[in-house]
From TrEMBL:
Keywords associated with the record: Amino-acid biosynthesis, Hydrolase, Methionine biosynthesis
Any one biological process term the GO annotation gives: nucleoside catabolic process
PANTHER family, per database record: 5'-METHYLTHIOADENOSINE/S-ADENOSYLHOMOCYSTEINE NUCLEOSIDASE, 5'-METHYLTHIOADENOSINE_S-ADENOSYLHOMOCYSTEINE NUCLEOSIDASE
Nucleoside phosphorylase domain boundaries: 26-264
EC code(s) of this entry: 3.2.2.9
Transmembrane segments: none
InterPro entries referenced in this protein's UniProt entry, alphabetically: MTA_SAH_Nsdase, Nucleoside_phosphorylase_d, Nucleoside_phosphorylase_sf
Organism: Sphaerotilus natans subsp. natans DSM 6575
Region called Disordered, residue ranges: 1-20
Gene3D superfamilies: Nucleoside phosphorylase domain
Record NCBIfam families: MTA_SAH-Nsdase (TIGR01704), PRK05584.1 (NF004079)
Biased composition (Low complexity): 7-20
Name recorded for this polypeptide: adenosylhomocysteine nucleosidase
Amino acid sequence: MLAPIMSTPSCPTPSATSSPAPVRPLAIVSALHQELAALLARGREADFERQRHAGRDFLIGRLHDVPVVLVLCGVGKVAAATTATLLAERFGVGALVFTGVAGGLGPGVKVGDLVLADELLQHDMDASPLFPRFEVPLTGRSRFPADAALTQALATACEAVLAQPQPFGAAAEALGVSRPALHRGLILSGDRFVGAAAECAALRQALPDALAVEMEGAALAQACHDLGLPFAVLRSISDRADDSAHIDFMRFIDEVASRASAAIVDGWLSAR
Ligand code: ADE
């Protein structure tokens, strides 16, 4: 299923002999190994061309015959923004999908549910009183929208996976995940793990429409906005961002996260 491809140049030069424009690969990005492991296992790692830049391994190949670049970006906003920039500038990707886990904030968002970002915000951005709280100074924005078409394509793939019995396997059921649902809306990002009920409540009060919290998406969104790169962010809910978040997170990420991401990305790529 996997075959090596050459990376495409980031700025293809128009040629007089009108050769077809190279297909720009899709980037699939996760923060942690567990979030990407099942996708990598779809084929032999040796079938990817591996390029190392800025401390990251970029795996270039094909999944379901679609050219892809897979990469673990690391944790946090800077890691996400650096990775998005490398993917656009060095690998010439045409779109970027981030897949991983998040803590649930919205009232009906439970462990095992899926959340697709329609927009993202950095909850730890605060240059007040110079600028309104959460606004990225000099951009006039606090919320960065995800690409609508890409997000809708992933929503369709999510719905197909969720319609299956035991969509994320028996391990998920053993963790109490039953009848997972798909939510769409606002995802928050910040450079800290939210694992205390008081902090979780403060975020809910400040941003009542927030569905989930994680550590990369909004930074990636800001970088992609600057780069003109369409992107989407898909998260499965590993914990409720409360006092037991760290326990639920560790179990979920080891036993479920990888399977959830892979099932949806598989469905999405095979429908392209
Ligand atoms: N990723 C998964 N759970 C999270 C949480 N509670 N806070 C921040 N990032 C997360």
